[in-house]
Amino acid sequence: MPLTTAEEYRRWAGREALGSSPLYERLALGVAGDGELIDFLSGLPPAKRQPNLLFAATRLVAGTPADYPQFRRSVLDHREAVAATMLSHRTQTNEPARCAALYPVLASLPQPLALLEVGASAGLCLLPDRYGYDYDGTPAGAVDSPLRLRCRTEGDSRFAGPGAISVVWRAGIDLNPLDVTHPDDVRWLRTLVWPEQRERLERLDAAIALARQDPPRIVRGDLNARLGEVAAQATPGATLVVYHTAVLGYLPEEGRAAFAEQVGRLGCQWISQEEAGVFPEVSARLRDEPAEAGYVLALNGEPVAFTALHGGRVRWLPEPSR
Ligand SMILES: C[S@@+](CC[C@H](N)C(=O)[O-])C[C@H]1O[C@@H](n2cnc3c(N)ncnc32)[C@H](O)[C@@H]1O
């Protein structure tokens, strides 16, 4: 049975906000026990009731609240503006730190690469070659980049000590591409960063500044509808990599299955970074690995690591014995 909105908020407080944002944890628990706020959310389509969307929309309309009582007043005093913002916006959090998990897998593939990210938001994960990385003190990537992404790693892996990557083509697909040169889009991207996370905000600002120098092309549309046509534009001879983070969970089961099938037909490399369960056949290959909060990183359907939701940590999985 699907969870009620109150249960969703309680679950989100414990699974996502706990340990990451004390304010969002308090807000989510507050909403879960607040009949008036649950009524407000019931007036919105189910896909628009998510905690992240409610909290960011309220902050965009009325600023960041100090506590739950101030938050509920903001929602109830500005209910029309908050609802309108939730209806006109999507959770499009774009987290460049997720590239630190993608980079070693990209570096393991035959170079040069043609990158196609579905659900690219503003395209900040389309620039893995423009960032520097620090894996437990070992540098990689663009060492002179103004943005250095630190990542803690655990587990031995064939992906440790990644070499260089060479990107000759890149494109994204998104239902609603965000534009790093547009102030409203940048404001929304910044508001999607959780309140106490100054480091994430600084990282986002640095990645936006880098992206502005040469913004990646992002095609508007549904990923299943446009994948074939955009993939066909990739530079011939380069390794085509189709990848995504925190996207396929937004699609119904049939949409995810259709996507996996399409990717298979393309004969490309496929990197998926999604919550366990988004692709049950990928999760099934985790075998006895203890489940972790965060994402499962998989290469061509084979899980290779558990990764943190907003980057910064990778636990490599043992290579399956063949
Ligand atoms: C949570 S954001 C993640 C952005 C980026 N992948 C990252 O990890 O930073 C999810 C993105 O997927 C996009 N999206 C969701 N469903 C989509 C679909 N069916 N087709 C294309 N894009 C989609 C949303 O518009 C949003 O920009």
What does this molecule look like?
It is a single chain. The protein is globular. Strand 7, helix 11 and strand 8 form a beta-alpha-beta unit. It is of the alpha/beta class and 322 residues long. It has helices at 5-17, 22-32, 35-42, 51-62, 68-77, 79-88, 99-107, 183-191, 198-213, 223-231, 253-266, 280-284, and strands at 113-118, 132-135, 138-141, 148-154, 167-174, 218-220, 239-245, 269-275, 295-299, 302-307, 313-316. The protein is built from twelve helices and eleven strands. Helix 1 (5-17) packs antiparallel against helix 2, helix 4 crosses helix 6 (79-88) and helix 10 runs parallel beside helix 11. An eleven-stranded mixed beta sheet has the order 3-2-4-11-10-9-8-7-1-5-6, sandwiched between helices. The protein has two domains: 5-88, no CATH class; 96-316, 3-Layer(aba) Sandwich (Rossmann fold). Bound molecules: S-adenosylmethionine.
Number of strands: 11
Measured as a percent range, the helix fraction is 25-40%
Largest β-sheet summary = 11 strands, mixed
CATH class division of the largest domain? Alpha Beta
The parts where pLDDT drops under 50 for at least 5 residues are none
Rg to the nearest angstrom?
A: 20 Å
Give the count of helical stretches.
12
Task: Quickly count the domains.
Answer: 2
Q: Decide which structural class fits the backbone.
A: alpha/beta
> Biggest sheet: strands side by side, in what order?
3-2-4-11-10-9-8-7-1-5-6
Ligand inventory reads: S-adenosylmethionine
Through-space gap between termini:
38 Å
